[in-house]
Amino acid sequence: MSEVQENIKFLIRRPKTPVIKPPLHRSVFNKSIKREYRSNRGCHQTMGYAEVKPNQPSKFLKKHTRKVIRPFVGTNKNSSFPGSSNVLNPVYPSRRCCQSDRKSEEKTKKTKKPKRNFLSENIVEVIRKVPPLPKHRVQDSRNGHIIVLDKAGLEPTYVSKKNFGKTPSYIRKIIKDKETIKLAEDERIRAIKPPLRYLPADERNELLTGLKANWGELYTEFLLLPMVTDSVPKVNRKARLENQLNNLEKDINILEKYPSLYVCDN
């Protein structure tokens, strides 16, 4: 065991062989790159110039200032391009193009108007403008909350109007149209059915006396009937008299119960 321990100790004490690393590659321009980096380090740190000089007010953006004039490209098959063999066959503008150009020039001449002076117009408009009236406002809290009375409905604006409390004209027109339609409908019904009339007291008394007389006659006739109804004609006659007596009693009760009545002539 002692020999084994000595061998282990020898292995532990043995120095390690050094690992040789290959040399790193260094560029020839290393120092110059570092120098340029350090010199331009604080340039444009805010993604742009710190202060940009604005243009003068006279150099504002104008219309048609950046008009790009493109070269003419011929659509003809025999058109000639630089470097091609067909140089002796140039492309000329067609008659339609010339006519369209002339028309456009004439339109521009016709539609040319004098320039408006917007500054003077704005000055005149501001001078003639009526100054706005102050708003009716109320502060309802110590924090400064303000209520505009006109918008909140706290000002009597509708009461002071001339047409307040009056029926609008369009509603009156609708009511008038409905009345005319109702009158026309009543006239149509009257043409179909005759109107009722009031029954006066004298006529009512005459009707009552006549009905009672008829009832008395029928009742006497009913009393004169035989006691035994052993045939069909006797039964029919008795039933007919009873029916007539009941109808007369109903009419008499109606006339006696209701003093004012309306009857139809037909």
Fold and architecture overview:
- The protein starts with a helix and ends with a strand.
- It has 266 residues and is mainly alpha-helical.
- Helix 7 runs antiparallel to helix 8.
- The chain has eight helices and four strands.
- About 5% of the residues have low confidence.
Q: Tell me the structural class.
A: mainly alpha
SSE pattern: HHHHEEHHEHHE
Mean pLDDT: 79
Low-confidence stretches: 79-90
For the largest beta sheet, what order do the strands appear in spatially? 1-2
Quick summary of this structure?
47% of the residues lie in helices and 5% in strands. With 266 residues, the chain is mainly alpha-helical.
Produce the secondary structure layout.
Blueprint: H1 2-13, H2 30-39, H3 95-110, H4 118-128, E1 137-139, E2 146-148, H5 149-152, H6 169-192, E3 197-199, H7 201-223, H8 232-257, E4 261-263
Antiparallel strand pairs: 1-2, 3-4
Helix pairs in contact: 7-8
